[in-house]
Amino acid sequence: MPETRDSAWGKRMKEAKKKRESKEYKEKYTAELQKQGETHLIVSALITTVTFAAGFTLPGGYKEDDGKAILSKKAAFRAFVVTDTIAMVSSLCAVFLHFFMTLRKGEKFLEKHLVWAFILTVVGMGGMAIAFATGLYVLNIVNFGEVPFPT
Prior knowledge:
By secondary structure, this protein is mainly alpha-helical. It has four helices and no strands. The radius of gyration is 24 Å and the shape is elongated.
């Protein structure tokens, strides 16, 4: 009697499960996760560095007499500060997660922490992009009175 489609599918699934449970597969998969983690760590560290620097070199600069930000009353400036802070904190958390990933070599542990680190890195990237846009916006408002977009 010929093999049915369901039994062939079941056979393939058992073989795939056996392959996933093999020591060689787990070592290869763990090494791949660690390599991805190294790449994500570089991105997270760069975001942390850029947002840290942007937090101290504020758009518009500082007042000489009291050291406060010149544009601190503008809503776009406040949006810049908030999004820059979100970007820095989330990317810094991702960097810490990458350090925690070095503590254990378990496949599930690495998967879980790599996913969270990736999510935090993406939040940091988004925050950094919004901080750039709001910083550019507030500078254009101050320098030109309005945003110089072609009409």
